[in-house]
Specification:
single chain; about 80 residues; Non-ribosomal Peptide Synthetase Peptidyl Carrier Protein, Chain A
Length: about 80
């Protein structure tokens, strides 16, 4: 469920087909996001899931799967 929400958010924000996004997709390399996209994505995720992602955590978010793990750890 978390993955689908993230997939949806990224597809809208980056204007790409959500079916091209997998848990192994690298946010910058595979999806074409830049640093501003990542900041906007994190703000959207924080709003959507009611969580806060620290700067230290954000630096380690390389793949969509990394995002899923961080969010799941905070909402469980």
């Amino acid at each position: 469920m978390t993955f689908e929400k993230i997939q949806e958010l990224l597809a809208q924000q980056l204007n790409i087909d959500k079916n091209t996004i997998t848990e192994n997709s690298e946010i910058i390399k595979d999806l074409g996001a830049d640093s501003l996209d990542i900041v906007e994505m994190l703000m959207g995720l924080e709003d959507q899931f009611g969580i806060e992602v620290s700067e230290d955590e954000a630096v380690n978010l390389k793949t969509v799967g990394d995002i899923v793990k961080v969010i799941d750890s905070k909402i469980k």
